């Protein structure tokens, strides 16, 4: 399923990841899946974003599993829960780098569990499934840090396989299940005008490029890096690969392993 990307892209560089444009809502009362949720003061909750660390977030228990492709978009700032009908621990806004599309990794009656863009890596949260836009991505991106390659698949069919530059030993690309969080175009970036931020973070660096240590897929002008463990954690890909990956819907799962 394709959807327009025009309103999903944000200008800026990877060094400007701190500008997230989250929308603010003071409080919400709702009835979700037949369950009445007590009033939640959203102003007391931390926003899940590339800037924040939320230690209370439940971690993904199946970090190398694929999904059925379901992705959701919160229409307004919404509380996140540790489990269905549990206490809220954070909130998520409708905008990060353009619209926020999150992959669903588990479902329960009236609830969906999604991957989050905040630290620690593999953070998840439960959302009531009301007031969410739903879509489906038929794509899967696989990054193999051992062979230093990246694959793009659609419904299990390989569309491309390219050599990629991955994290150096001291600054590795974090393994596990993450997702395509945004698509940034900035013609002033000579190294790569196109940057695709992921919902994952460097395990060793708190910041690079002037912003948080958010891992991204992007290009690189020197082809010698492709097939090398050389980056600060990001995945550097050839121009042809980046052009294909740029067309993938936001929220698409990215599986990073050591193969």
Helix content: under 10%
Order of helices and strands: EEEEEEEEEEEEEEEEEEEEEEEEHE
Q: What are the segments in which pLDDT stays under 50 over at least 5 consecutive residues?
A: 1-36
* Count of distinct strands: 25
The tally of helices reads 1
Order of the strands making up the biggest sheet: 1-18-19-22-24
Mean pLDDT: 86
Question: What does it look like?
Answer:
The chain has 259 residues and is mainly β. It has one helix at residues 239-245; strands at residues 9-11, 27-32, 35-41, 70-74, 78-81, 88-92, 95-96, 98-99, 102-108, 111-115, 124-128, 132-136, 139-144, 149-154, 157-163, 166-167, 176-179, 183-185, 194-201, 207-208, 211-212, 214-218, 229-231, 235-236, 253-257. The protein is globular, with a radius of gyration of 18 Å. 45% of the residues are buried.
Describe how the helices and strands are arranged.
Layout: E1 9-11, E2 27-32, E3 35-41, E4 70-74, E5 78-81, E6 88-92, E7 95-96, E8 98-99, E9 102-108, E10 111-115, E11 124-128, E12 132-136, E13 139-144, E14 149-154, E15 157-163, E16 166-167, E17 176-179, E18 183-185, E19 194-201, E20 207-208, E21 211-212, E22 214-218, E23 229-231, E24 235-236, H1 239-245, E25 253-257
Parallel strand pairs: 1-18, 13-25, 16-23, 22-24
Antiparallel strand pairs: 2-3, 4-9, 4-12, 5-6, 7-8, 9-10, 10-11, 13-14, 14-15, 17-25, 18-19, 19-22, 20-21
